[in-house]
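step: validate -> pass
step: tokenize input -> pass
step: predict -> running
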Amino acid sequence: MPVPPTIDRGVLRTYLADHLTGATAGLGRATRMAEVYADSEIGPELRRLADEIQEEHDHVESLIDRLDLRQPRVLRLAAKAAEVVARLKPGGRGPYPSPMTPMLEVELLRGAVNAKVGMWEALAHYADELGLDRADYERRTAAVDQQVATLQALHTQLVPDALRPGQAGVL
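step: predict -> pass
step: emit ->
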């Protein structure tokens, strides 16, 4: 579907590419967390979130293709590389896992989830001009509230032991 002349194609391309870059990093973090903490108490919720974030990432990627906007792969590769580098940071306990790590990761993921709500709101606003389903983007905007609530509940669960001495890992 073509981008109408009432919308700046280059600005839209940059906007969606920047969000896709962030979504790529967020997806990498969510997927890794779901795998690492799969056998912990927080595992099932992280798996559900990772699946939702995967669907949203795929949707943005598909939207960019449908609007015939080029996807700058170099930005997405940079986001993936940044996520890998972030994982290499020690948790302050040498080779042993730190209980701080899942708390910090949940906080970072919460930031990524909060960032995407603006994109869903903007796409809802421009949906008619772009030939998109406004209700879909309104639904996606509302779904962010549930994702944030889930992350807040996980954070609340992790905080009590995250900075205590002698703790050795996740739940």
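step: describe -> Residues 90-96 have pLDDT under 50 and may be disordered.
step: cleanup -> pass
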